[in-house]
Design goal:
Elements (H helix, E strand, L loop, with lengths): L1 H21 L3 H14 L2 H10 L1 H56 L18 H14 L6 E6 L16 E3 L5 H4 L2 H9 L3 E8 L11 E11 L5 E9 L1 H51 L14 H57 L6 H32 L7 E4 H19 L3 E4 L6 E4 L1 H17 L6 E8 L2 E8 L8 H4 L21 H11 L3 E7 L3 E9 L19 H14 L17 H6 L31 H4 L10
Parallel strand pairs: 7-9
Antiparallel strand pairs: 1-2, 1-5, 3-4, 4-5, 6-8, 9-10, 10-12, 11-12
Length: 655
């Protein structure tokens, strides 16, 4: 249960940290600045790590080999250390057992009156003198292999009542016996019989020339002196040689391990290089192929798998070049055919037009059936001429011969001309055209003729498919972009039709007639005009909820677009209204309007005109691939779901 509380308690902290980073106040700005400053130096390294597979493989090989060498080193050093210590303990216990036996034998030796061994006899000596002689004699056989120390019984502890014997401490080789023998070992020797050992450090007195402490194995045992009183005898075996041997093993293994790691890294680099170099070459050639340099080929050497891959890549590139050339030739022939047919049809069409005009002017003298036929002939000839003009324009776009004559223009003037031209159709349909955002100049470097053609197509389509409801034309400018959006409240588009609406001759409802005599190439030409400006023409719509077309142009010619000042999905769409209603219901119960609400879903002019433009997340032009510009989440309108949800504009007949 406690672990669950810990896990649950960590989430609020994470959420608080995220809210701090998203905060708009000074604290949030400072935190975001710190995060950016901390990430900026790491970005080149992260980019290099993500883009270089050879670096990742070599780094992974080095890390894994280093981990293996370290693990192996720990095992080897542990085994060597254990072997050295076991051998040292065995030799030390054997040496100490012999020394303990000699010391006890000397203490138990019978007294002698005279002789050459008088120095070792009990006669004429007290216990302290005998102990000094014993320590010196036992240490003389060590030759720096060990030191001997003697401590009185109870040394370091409270002396037990009735305990007698040697007092004080003595040792050989300037060893400090009290500091060198651990208190724990002294307690064990004092409280039990037998031999005891432990690891400690040999510390020397000041008379030893400030000699540094050294590790040692201490072996001790309780014995009796010449008077039969107890004392503790300790053998101190330095571990200097073993430590030097272990350091030598560590140094040798570290050098060998480092050499092995470097060698493995070099081997990994060479091996990966042999594989990565052809892949990089193939990637570079693929990029050049995608750029149109179809003659690029890989250099193939050998007969291994890489060579087979190179040969297959070259065959693929050759076949791709052949297919593309065939398609280009076919497309060139088709474009030439369309252009030639369009030009060749102009001469007979001119003749037919002249004859039709004569017949049309004299229709008052004909019977009703013939007069009606003359009117139909004139109308269809007008449509035929429009179709030829659109085909010629499309052929110029396909051939790359379309030229842009950009100059600074005010889009408000273009919109006024378009609306003036669409007023007769709007009056016939019972539609009112409203303009929002025209209080300030909307200046951009653009071709006025092409922009007017795009907007005329959008406005006429909106009026024709607006079902008699209002059409709203909105202008806005922000940053380096200007935008014009045309909103209608007609039939809208079904999911998935937003991208197909720009296809040539596409119709949402093939059975529906073209009341305005459109050719079906209007939106195709409009989207080409937008691309020629370096701008976007995008569509949004929902079934029964109308549609909106948005034209976004750079304020300055050749300036890349990073966003649009008008959101693609309008604020009065069903999704936005439902979302706003849900948010309002969460705060307070909404009050129903007293008059039942307005018939038109268009918001009041003042509210729209004063609203701040919301930067949109642009989607790509149809056929140009995705191009997305990130922006803060709180500013993201719902047009991001245009392609996913199939939002589209009104019925595409005549577009």
């Amino acid at each position: 249960m406690q672990a669950g509380k810990d896990r649950g308690g960590s989430r609020p902290g994470t959420l608080r940290a995220g809210r701090l980073l998203r905060a708009r106040g000074p604290v949030g700005a400072v935190l975001r600045l710190c995060v950016r400053l901390a990430r900026r130096p790491l970005l080149p390294a992260v980019r290099l790590w993500r883009r270089n597979i050879q670096l990742r493989v070599v780094a992974a090989t080095l890390l894994m080999s280093l981990a293996v060498v370290l693990a192996l080193g720990f095992v080897v050093v542990a085994q060597v250390s254990k072997g050295l210590l076991d051998a040292k303990e065995e030799a030390a216990q054997s040496q100490a057992a012999g020394g303990f036996a000699v010391a006890q034998e000397k203490a138990n030796a019978p007294a002698a009156v005279d002789g050459s061994d008088a120095a070792d006899n009990k006669v004429g000596r007290d216990a302290s003198t005998w102990m000094n002689s014993l320590v010196k004699q036992l240490a003389s056989g060590g030759q720096t292999a060990f030191e001997v120390a003697a401590l009185g019984a109870g040394t370091g502890e409270q002396v037990l009542p009735g305990t007698q014997g040697v007092k004080g401490a003595r040792a050989s080789g300037n060893v400090d016996p009290t500091a060198s023998v651990p208190l724990k070992l002294r307690r064990a020797v004092n409280n039990a019989t037998g031999t005891f050992k432990t690891f400690s450090e040999i510390r020397y007195t000041t008379g030893a020339g400030e000699k540094a402490p050294e590790p040692a194995l201490v072996v001790g045992k309780r014995l009796t002196d010449i008077n039969g009183d107890p004392y503790d005898l300790y053998y101190l075996f330095p571990l200097t040689q073993e430590e030097e041997s272990l350091n030598l093993v560590k140094g040798t293994f570290a050098t060998a391990g480092l050499f092995v790691v470097v060698l493995l890294g070099a081997i990994a680099w060479l091996v990966v290089r042999q594989v990565v170099t052809p892949v990089r070459m193939a990637a570079g050639i693929a990029e050049r192929l995608s750029a149109g340099r179809l003659q690029e080929r890989m250099k193939v050497t050998g007969e291994d798998d890489i060579a087979r891959l190179g040969e297959a890549f070259n065959k693929m590139a050759q076949n791709l070049q052949l297919k593309i050339q065939q398609l280009e030739d076919l497309s060139r022939m088709q474009r030439r055919f369309v252009s030639d047919v369009s030009h060749e049809l102009r001469t007979p069409l001119t003749t037919v037009r002249m004859a039709a005009d004569v017949i049309h002017d004299a229709r008052v003298d004909f019977d009703p059936v013939t007069a009606r036929s003359a009117e139909l002939l004139a109308g269809q000839l007008d449509r035929f001429e429009s179709l030829l003009a659109d085909l010629l324009e499309i052929s110029r776009f396909d051939a790359g011969a379309a030229a842009l004559e950009a100059e600074p223009i005010d889009l408000r003037d273009v919109v006024r001309r378009v609306i003036d031209g669409a007023e007769p159709l709007a009056e016939h349909k019972g539609t009112r055209i409203r303009v929002l955002g025209d209080t300030q100049p909307v200046i951009a470097e653009a071709d006025a003729r092409r922009v007017e053609r795009v907007l005329r197509n959008l406005v006429v389509n909106a009026v024709e498919h607006g079902e008699g409801r209002d059409v709203v034309v909105r202008l806005a400018s922000a940053g380096g972009a200007v935008a014009v959006a045309v909103r209608d409240y007609g039939v809208g588009l079904k999911p998935g039709e937003a991208t197909r609406v720009f296809n040539r001759f596409w119709r949402a409802d093939p059975a529906r007639a073209r009341t305005t005599g459109g050719t079906g190439l209007g939106l195709s030409i409009a989207v080409e005009d937008a691309r020629l400006h370096g701008g976007w023409l995008q569509a949004w719509g929902e079934p029964g909820g109308g549609s909106q077309f948005r034209l976004t142009l750079p304020r300055t010619a050749d300036e890349p677009l990073r966003g649009s000042p008008i959101p693609l999905e309008p604020e009065d769409s069903r999704a936005n209204r439902a979302r706003a209603a849900a948010e309002a219901a969460g705060r307070a119960a909404p009050k129903p309007p007293a008059d039942g609400g307005d018939r038109s879903p268009i918001p009041p002019r003042s509210a729209v005109a004063t609203a701040l433009p919301v930067p949109a997340d642009p989607t790509a032009l149809p056929g140009n691939g995705a191009r997305v510009v990130a922006r803060p989440a709180e500013q993201a309108p719902q047009e991001d779901r245009t392609d996913a949800e199939g939002h589209a504009d009104a019925d595409a007949e005549g577009r």
